[in-house]
Amino acid sequence: MSTFDIHPLNRFAGSSAAIRRPKEIAYFSYDDEHDFYLDERSLRWYYPPTIGADLSRGFESFQQLDDSADDHLDSLLKTIIDLEQKHGSRCEADVITWRGMMTKIMAAPFDNFNGFEMNATRFQDTIFIEENHIHKLESRQTQHSQTSHHGAPSQDLMSYWETGYKFETLSLLPAPWDATPREFIEERENMIVNNSAQYCSVVKTGIGKTKLIIGGEVDGLWDSKPAHADDSINWVELKTSAEILSDRDSLKYERKLLKFWIQSFLLGVPKIIVGFRSREGRLQSLEELETRSIPSIVKQKGKGTWDGNICINFTASFLEWLRVTITSPGVWRIRKREKVPFIEVFKCEESGYGDILSEEFVEWRQRDS
Asked: d(Cα 21, Cα 200) in Å, to the nearest integer?
């Protein structure tokens, strides 16, 4: 077993490591049935929601995605195959993974209370990383088993608020606003909430000396995609949070901003819109945040609970270490336990790729070998 020490953090202080601006190289969609398509059918556009809207409405009829099955990296790998077929060349990267895995790694210096477990394998000089599905389900079960305080909303209703699915339904349109019927816009509060449909962006980026390909869901567009592929896309990330009524609330929000910032930073999302809700679950106000400004806001106006440069430098160092630690095929485990100041990496299976890589992807990549 190999370990990477998170502390002391001061060795990651200073100006940030080099960052390669995320650039969308491909995309895919899941529809309302969560069927996979290599197109933009689930792309959405932002249009402001109505203040005062009830974020609890539709909870009873919520059509929640059943993600109990392990999908591994299959959709991301299908998209990469399609891209390589179109371009006639391989997508080169040191690490290929989902945005969620990179978020957990990047937040590790300041997220002492949450652990994670990931599976990884090495294939053709690239490390592929996925979430350990069993650990994910166990963590979710632990969270749902927590009892609510007397008089407080149920854990399920709180989760419905926190995940923001209702807020997204209130804030997104299936077409630009000028092409959307007024009736649709006005009826958004009464629409059934379904979290199966997703638009997922696949970006090429880099942190320090490590080249990455990352896939992740984006909520919507502020205006339209640019005509030139090299230009930045004006994505919008939607988040919800309880309204801030005390210093304790302010501290909790500052800590949430860490994940908000990392998630948008990794995919190159420039704007985050936060919907603040009352204790009864009504939308009270909106705040627009520029992603690049969040670390400065925390540093200058907050309690200093986290530092963006430390997150970037930690991630750059960890990924370099990971690349010389995971040096062969087989299945590897990347694990951080709760309240433990280091990340462990060890081998679980001596050969093969587990189910991290689909047979389709391996056969495609080995066709000329």
From this structure: 18
Buried b (16+ CB within 10 A) or exposed e, 313-335: bbbbbbbbebbebbeebbbbbbb
Closest by CA to 38, choosing from 77, 71, 82, is: 82
Using alpha carbons, list the distances in angstroms from residue 199 to 29, 31, 67, 279, 314.
5, 9, 16, 31, 29
Q: Determine the Cα–Cα distance for residues 59 and 61; give it in Å rounded to an integer.
A: 6
Closest CA to 17 of 259, 213, 309: 309
Q: How far is CA 52 from the centre of its chain?
A: 28
Structure tokens at 99: 């945005």
Kindly provide the residue ranges of all beta strands, DSSP E only, lying in 31-125, ordered along the sequence: 36-37, 45-46, 95-98, 116-123
pLDDT for 322-336, tens place per residue?
999 999 999 999 999
For 304-357, what is each residue's pLDDT tens digit?
999 999 999 999 999 999 999 999 999 999 999 999 999 999 999 999 999 999
For helices 99-107 and 247-267, what crossing angle results, to 10°?
A: 130
User: Cβ–Cβ contacts within 10 Å for residue 241, how many?
Assistant: 19
Strand order in the sheet with 220-221: 172-173, 45-46, 220-221, 235-242, 271-277, 283-290
